[in-house]
Amino acid sequence: MKESRKYILYVGNDYPHKNLKRLKLAFEKLNLDYKLVLVTEIISDEKLDELYKNASLYVQPSLIEGFGLSPLEAMKRGVPVISSNAACLPEILGTAAMYFDPLDINDIVEKMRSILSNDRAKKELIRKGFEQVQKYSWQKMTKQTLEIYKKIP
After folding, report:
1. Which residues contact 26 (CB under 8 A, 6 or more apart)?
2. What is the dihedral sign for C-alpha 81, 108, 8, 61?
3. 97-128, pLDDT tens digit by residue?
4. Pairing state of beta strands 97-100 and 81-84?
5. Distance separating alpha carbons of residues 69 and 76, to the nearest angstrom
6. Which candidate, 15, 13, 38, places its Cα nearest to that of 27?
7. Residue that wins the pLDDT comparison between 14 and 4
8. What residue ranges do the domains of the chain occupy?
């Protein structure tokens, strides 16, 4: 494994409902030779793409989420995803993510460890992730939105 892939990634803001406090506590308990990379500020698209592509794992720990674009971005780049089972995330990510209770630090640790130590499970999530992202596209969303606007009197 390349040294550059020895990190766990989160991309988003650091508002309390994003649950980064528990993610950090879980990471400390994980006690593996990985780094935790939290992208909570604006960076270049190129740097963000590089961070996604080289991550070992993406974690979405949110307590509340509107849609969950970041884990889909990770899936698109071949990164396995574990996610909170809260809000809309299971609906958006389907079977392409492994889920945890966002209030249970030990569950977060267990799911991170499970994927980082099991190549077979990791490859399966990556495969399912590529399939899941095919369900979403900006063109499809734009077309559907336009159709809704056309129905408004």
Report:
1. 61, 105, 106, 108, 109, 112
2. positive
3. 999 999 999 999 999 999 999 999 999 999 99
4. parallel
5. 11
6. 38
7. 14
8. 3-150
Tokens 């780094």 locate to 35
Q: How confident is the model at residue 3 (pLDDT cuts 50, 70, 90)?
A: very low
Contact criterion met (CB below 8 Å) for 125 and 93: no
In the structure encoding, which two tokens stand for residue 73, read together?
């971005």
* Sole residue written with tokens 């939105």: 145
The three-state secondary structure class of 68 is coil
Q: What would the two tokens of residue 67 be?
A: 């849609």
Fold category of 3-150 in CATH? Rossmann fold (3.40.50)
Confidence of residue 25 (pLDDT cuts 50, 70, 90): very high
Q: Cα-flanking dihedrals φ and ψ of residue 129, to 5°?
A: -65, -45
Phi-psi region of 10 (alpha: psi -120 to 50; beta: other; left: phi over 0): beta
Cα-Cα-Cα-Cα torsion 79, 104, 89, 119, nearest 10 degrees, comes to 20
DSSP 13-34: ---GGG-HHHHHHHHHHH-SS-
Q: Are 17 and 63 in contact (CB under 8 A)?
A: yes
Question: Quick one: pLDDT at residue 4?
Answer: 55
Q: Could you read off the pLDDT of 60-77 as tens digits, one per residue? A: 999 999 888 999 999 999
